[in-house]
Amino acid sequence: MSLTLNDIKHNKIKAWVEECIAMCEPDNVVVVDGSKEEYDALMQKCVNAGLATKLAKKENCYLFRSLPSDVARVESRTFISSVKEEDAGPTNHWIDPKELKETMKGLYKGCMHGRTMYVIPFCMGPLGSPISKNGIELTDSEYVVLNMDIMTRAGKKVLDILNADQNAEFVPCLHSVGKPLNNGETDGGIWPCADVEHKYITQFPDEKLIWSYGSGYGGNALLGKKCFALRIATVLARDEGWLAEHMLILKLTNPKGEVKYVTGAFPSACGKTNLAMLIPTIPGWKVETIGDDIAWMKFGKDGRLYAINPEAGFFGVAPGTSAESNKNALISAEKNTIYTNCALTEDGDVWWEGIGYPAKGKLVDWKGNTRDALPKDKAPKGEEMAHPNARFTAPANQCPCIAKEWEDPAGVPISAILFGGRRPSTIPLVHQSLSWNHGVFLGSIVGSEITAASTINAAEVGKIRRDPFAILPFCGYNMGDYFKHWIEIGKKSTEDKLPKIFYVNWFRKDANNEKLPGGFMWPGYGDNSRVLAWIFDRCNGDNSNVVETAIGYMPKTLNTDGLADYYKETLPEILKVDVEGWKKELADVKENHYPKFGKHLPKELSEIIDMIQDRLNKA
Ligand code: GTP
Ligand code: MN
Ligand code: MN
């Protein structure tokens, strides 16, 4: 049976929910219990309202279509509303919290007319883990409840934990699609959301409070994910001495059966989900998944960093996911999955560009138009059948390669941290930092080269868009202070116990070499296991296959058994230090990147630049 407000015994939660009810004026209030019956009933409500389509071809799977104006995170409408503007830093949008609260209260007033308010008690991280944190999301979107059910531990079991202790902490998260239904109106089968200028995705870091209004899209509306597990959690982590990161977590087993755990921060659309679920091409090695997007890491008593995945599902990008690129993701999403903005086939299945086979017959595209399938598995930009940011929401425990310890409340001890981005030149396939602080420097310069496909401004093409630690859109405080926090973390333990730090780059290009598929000099995907194997051995203290270069430690070579000859030929080139390229890189960091952070930039990072510059001059 579903729960009611009377089941909330935690006085602070109750008072806050009542305050929000008085402001938003929903027709009904339901406390989410997290049961299958409740999930099924809510999904049926969405189907009846014309918002979801049941897929005939996949067990318990449904397709939602959003409005074209509500398909992604909106950074221009995302705010870090700290009391002091300086605390938001130079890379976040800021509005004074007093002013923003007045504006948003005006929007929230009566915004849930004609709708139900759902109260979702949820836990980020395994239940009972000392690293986990609880939240309560209030939302008027059934889509949000259904997704939160998959992406978090939600419902009665979490409410019971909160009810048991009046002092139990929770992060309050208020969400509304911003589309009240007055006088018996209905959504008429149209995804509800507000106009762009009325969307606000606001974090109040001083109060650890989240207010989101006007969008139904995942990153803006599933408040446990980017808003809590990253923007608010980075602030908690700074204050409490741990790390909340935009990182995958994987378990790596070598042919001897030895295990290491690795995290990796790559900007969105740079392959975290792929690496987390990788199928190695070298015999005897195994990769298993702990998480594909977010890692929370805390020191254990032994001085090592232990990581948990705060999420319980995958919110993965669908386009480009195929049996070849990520079979394990496809299998994870075979049943009990929510698809958003994918195309629908005539026989009741989903389809997207890059799924690995052409569609047949007619398709309903993500905008709801019925069109003839294109003869190829590709479409011109803007005419895709599936939106390029179409997503699947799949339970993590359905992943064929999920590690058995993925929900261990103690977390897993991390041996290596990887950073990476899309860098067609300069950055080698892999190099290891000379020290913790050098590793922090590598995290701070993460970025991707701007291509003609990623900008409309021709003058930007070829420049580097920096996304330090891949967390630029998700850091809840001043990015310069965040760098400082990483330096401080390094002082809490010793180099032998801290994870080793590596910079990887799967994206080196040689446009003139016609043999290379896509122009990429490295095959990537499953073949990244060759790089992981070297990283594993480095973590084991193996010094047999290493050279110390000006920029850090690098492999002399890698296991190339079974690689195509043209990759064997390009390997030496991507394992070389590009001295001139690195000098330019450091100059760019010094002139265009670091000055943004002013006096918040830790001096340790400038010292690293000087040190590497010195080494390059001697190289
Ligand atoms: P978010 O979930 O948005 O944080 O992003 P993500 O880091 O999980 O990236 P996502 O899985 O969306 O990125 C996949 C993109 O990276 C696709 O375009 C893949 O084709 C590409 N990709 C992933 N791994 C590799 C690789 O090893 N080599 C190459 N060339 N491309 C890769
Ligand atoms: Mn991902
Ligand atoms: Mn992400």
TrEMBL record:
<dbReference type="GO" id="GO:0005829">
    <property type="term" value="C:cytosol"/>
</dbReference>
<keyword id="KW-0342">GTP-binding</keyword>
<feature type="binding site">
    <location>
        <position position="226"/>
    </location>
    <ligand>
        <name>Mn(2+)</name>
    </ligand>
</feature>
<dbReference type="InterPro" id="IPR008209">
    <property type="entry name" value="PEP_carboxykinase_GTP"/>
</dbReference>
<dbReference type="GO" id="GO:0005525">
    <property type="term" value="F:GTP binding"/>
</dbReference>
<comment type="similarity">
    <text>Belongs to the phosphoenolpyruvate carboxykinase [GTP] family.</text>
</comment>
<feature type="binding site">
    <location>
        <position position="246"/>
    </location>
    <ligand>
        <name>Mn(2+)</name>
    </ligand>
</feature>
<keyword id="KW-0808">Transferase</keyword>
<dbReference type="InterPro" id="IPR035078">
    <property type="entry name" value="PEP_carboxykinase_GTP_N"/>
</dbReference>
<keyword id="KW-0963">Cytoplasm</keyword>
<feature type="domain" description="Phosphoenolpyruvate carboxykinase GTP-utilising N-terminal">
    <location>
        <begin position="16"/>
        <end position="238"/>
    </location>
</feature>
<dbReference type="InterPro" id="IPR013035">
    <property type="entry name" value="PEP_carboxykinase_C"/>
</dbReference>
<keyword id="KW-0479">Metal-binding</keyword>
<feature type="binding site">
    <location>
        <position position="293"/>
    </location>
    <ligand>
        <name>Mn(2+)</name>
    </ligand>
</feature>
<keyword id="KW-0210">Decarboxylase</keyword>
<protein>
    <recommendedName>
        <fullName>Phosphoenolpyruvate carboxykinase [GTP]</fullName>
        <ecNumber>4.1.1.32</ecNumber>
    </recommendedName>
</protein>
<dbReference type="GO" id="GO:0042594">
    <property type="term" value="P:response to starvation"/>
</dbReference>
<comment type="pathway">
    <text>Carbohydrate biosynthesis; gluconeogenesis.</text>
</comment>
<feature type="binding site">
    <location>
        <position position="73"/>
    </location>
    <ligand>
        <name>substrate</name>
    </ligand>
</feature>
<feature type="active site">
    <location>
        <position position="270"/>
    </location>
</feature>
<dbReference type="InterPro" id="IPR018091">
    <property type="entry name" value="PEP_carboxykin_GTP_CS"/>
</dbReference>
<keyword id="KW-0670">Pyruvate</keyword>
<dbReference type="GO" id="GO:0033993">
    <property type="term" value="P:response to lipid"/>
</dbReference>
<dbReference type="GO" id="GO:0016301">
    <property type="term" value="F:kinase activity"/>
</dbReference>
<dbReference type="GO" id="GO:0006094">
    <property type="term" value="P:gluconeogenesis"/>
</dbReference>
<dbReference type="InterPro" id="IPR035077">
    <property type="entry name" value="PEP_carboxykinase_GTP_C"/>
</dbReference>
<dbReference type="InterPro" id="IPR008210">
    <property type="entry name" value="PEP_carboxykinase_N"/>
</dbReference>
<feature type="binding site">
    <location>
        <begin position="269"/>
        <end position="274"/>
    </location>
    <ligand>
        <name>GTP</name>
    </ligand>
</feature>
<feature type="domain" description="Phosphoenolpyruvate carboxykinase C-terminal P-loop">
    <location>
        <begin position="242"/>
        <end position="614"/>
    </location>
</feature>
<feature type="binding site">
    <location>
        <position position="422"/>
    </location>
    <ligand>
        <name>GTP</name>
    </ligand>
</feature>
<dbReference type="Pfam" id="PF00821">
    <property type="entry name" value="PEPCK_GTP"/>
</dbReference>
<keyword id="KW-0418">Kinase</keyword>
<feature type="binding site">
    <location>
        <begin position="217"/>
        <end position="219"/>
    </location>
    <ligand>
        <name>substrate</name>
    </ligand>
</feature>
<dbReference type="GO" id="GO:0019543">
    <property type="term" value="P:propionate catabolic process"/>
</dbReference>
<dbReference type="Pfam" id="PF17297">
    <property type="entry name" value="PEPCK_N"/>
</dbReference>
<keyword id="KW-0464">Manganese</keyword>
<dbReference type="GO" id="GO:0030145">
    <property type="term" value="F:manganese ion binding"/>
</dbReference>
<comment type="function">
    <text>Catalyzes the conversion of oxaloacetate (OAA) to phosphoenolpyruvate (PEP), the rate-limiting step in the metabolic pathway that produces glucose from lactate and other precursors derived from the citric acid cycle.</text>
</comment>
<keyword id="KW-0312">Gluconeogenesis</keyword>
<dbReference type="GO" id="GO:0006107">
    <property type="term" value="P:oxaloacetate metabolic process"/>
</dbReference>
<feature type="binding site">
    <location>
        <begin position="389"/>
        <end position="391"/>
    </location>
    <ligand>
        <name>substrate</name>
    </ligand>
</feature>
<keyword id="KW-0547">Nucleotide-binding</keyword>
